[in-house]
Amino acid sequence: METKKLKFDILGNAKDSLSQAVSHLIEKKALDESSHKRVILNLAHAVELFLKERLYRIHPAFIWKDIDRYPSNTAITINTDGALNRLRKLGGVKISEKMEKTIAALRKARNSIEHYIFEIEEKESKAIIGGTLAFIFDFTENHLGINLISEFKNDNQWAPLLKLHFEFKQELAQIMEGRLKNKPARYCPNCGELTFDIQQLGCILCGHTEGEVECDICHRTVWESEAQGIEIFGEDDKGRDISAGIAICNECGGSPEPDFDPYEF
Description:
Shape: elongated
Strand content: 5-15%
Structural class: mainly alpha
């Protein structure tokens, strides 16, 4: 009987651990001690492998602690700190001080789970989880060319993840705001963050898309969802029935009939 061979490459292994962490966050909603432990372990594993994947793309030997042992399957590979160090020196990869502190806190929590007593404040654990998730989605897009956000949107996991994990949403929102620093942006009417790209008419954080309209009464520019279209009927100078549509924002919705001729537009 032929046995089935199971195999994960580095990237597939990392994505699988990330997927398990996200699925657990969404399914559990309110995390207990066991859930915090499980998510931290999965995220620590994912981070280490995503870093190794970037090193592997520079040269496969760089993921071995002793490069001369490449390609031995029994030799030890580098840990997260080693991967970060080599990426800086050999790959020119720059990671912010804030993110490095998050990764260090993640490793500390992971080590206590694996080797000692796992004891952590719930607020700190949520901050580590949120910061780590934000790092993963940013790192994989910038340094691996992988849009994991799109993948999770396709699986309908993105919206509930943003909704359920406030710390993650806030951390990633700051990163996304930085990407729009030199572009026209507005606060998204869906997620409330300053991550709506005016040029693309879409939020780069939550994915919400919506256009803008000008109110025909106050002439303010508002979101389509903040206005209503009204049909005005009348007659032309020859007594023929005609109609015209105007847009009125919600604030002007209770105002009297506009004192202008809609047919002048």
